[in-house]
Amino acid sequence: MGAAADVSAVTNLIATYAELVDDGDFAGVGALFADAVLRGSGVPAEGREAVEKMLRDTVILYEDGTPRTHHATTNIAVEVDEEAGTAAARSYVTVFQALPGLPLQPIAAGHYSDRFERSGDGRWRFAERRVRIRLVGDVSRHLRG
Questions:
Q1: pLDDT by residue for the chain (145 residues), tens digit each?
Q2: Of 37, 40, 58, 82, which alpha carbon lies 20 to 30 A from 142's?
Q3: Model pTM greater than 0.85?
């Protein structure tokens, strides 16, 4: 893979995470973190089962099977270390939500700090995601507790 292809592959992983969360596909998110750790404000979740469980335990899903959210990931900056087979990325995230009785609005904003590794088959995978939410709105219909 060349540098542009590596950056594209890592950027696609970042986008895939947002799509899977917004689709309520927590098993899919778990698969993205099969060999990784997800760090947020609570106890870190490491590996497929732990990440899936953490999401199921904290995120509210609605009749359509989704959290009725839209994760907008912007300001993505990717740095690849070809020799080491690693990459790092920084990005902003804004989470929007809309429900009956809750007009479309941002409910949280922050940033992701990600680390990636190239696997033995040459594909990129998450190694670690650190989530830092800086601004919090009404998350009462998004998160349990």
A1: 568 999 999 999 999 999 999 999 999 999 999 999 999 988 999 999 999 999 999 999 999 999 999 999 999 999 999 999 999 999 999 999 999 999 999 999 999 999 999 998 999 999 999 999 999 999 999 999 8
A2: 37
A3: yes
Distance separating alpha carbons of residues 50 and 121, to the nearest angstrom: 24
- Other C-beta atoms closer than 10 Å to the C-beta of 83 total 6
Burial of 108 (0-12, 13-18, 19+ CB in 10 A): buried
- CA atoms of 134 and 145, how far apart (whole Å): 19
Residue 87 amino acid letter: A
Q: Which helix (H) or strand (E) holds 6?
A: helix 3-23
Domain count along the chain: 1
Parallel, antiparallel, or unpaired for β 124-136 and 37-39?
parallel
CATH number, domain of 37, equals: 3.10.450.50
Task: Report yes or no: 77 and 91 within 8 Å, Cβ to Cβ.
Answer: yes
